[in-house]
Amino acid sequence: MIGAMPEQLFLPGIDPPPRPLPRSRSKVLRKEPPPHTLFLALVPHTPDATAIAALGERMNSQHALKGTLVEAHRLHVTLFDLGGHAQVPASLVAQASTAAASVPVPAFDIVFEKAMSFAKGALVLCAEDEQNVSALRSFRQRLGEALADAGLKPPRSFTPHMTVAYARRKLEKHALEAPVRWTAGSLVLIDSHVGEGVHEVLGRWPNAPNLPHDLPDLSPARLGTAGA
Prior knowledge:
Blueprint: E1 36-44, H1 46-62, E2 68-69, E3 77-85, H2 90-101, E4 109-117, E5 122-126, H3 134-149, E6 161-166, E7 174-193, E8 198-206, H4 220-223
Antiparallel strand pairs: 1-3, 1-7, 2-6, 4-5, 4-7, 5-6, 7-8
């Protein structure tokens, strides 16, 4: 019959090919991240942290982000990510602590004049003017050398920033109405308990004793709000 499809013949003793397996509709299970993430960071003094947290709250409201704010006591600038771990490795803590203790923390200022969204919904304060973070970069370089001397391999890449909130809505990089200036308070070794919102301080090294008592004025009026 013209137009009919030819039938497929199978020889005796030869089984027909199996039917293709149906595609699984089940989602691929994501590997759970390690429960502990260690990192070295700089944290601001309490007055600075309180004012910066207030700025994050105002930005969240101004841009209708409906984000999750980072509490003042958890604000920080990560210097070196020391990786994720199933358990906190004592040897790594010892190496990082030895390095941190060998590098005095000077009382230098850090200035963030921009805000933008990073990966995973992080709303961050950052710097476009390298002069605003030059002292921060210099300190990180010295700390990196100390980590290498202690037997670690610190990552080289570094984008100075401070996360103030997490939100699904993304914001393009824009200028703050007033730069955020704060003084480096302490160098800390943190164990972040992943998924629990807990930052456990494993080591703290305050800045040099010559820190001036009159901290910069970081009142909300000086900090300003995010520009359009």
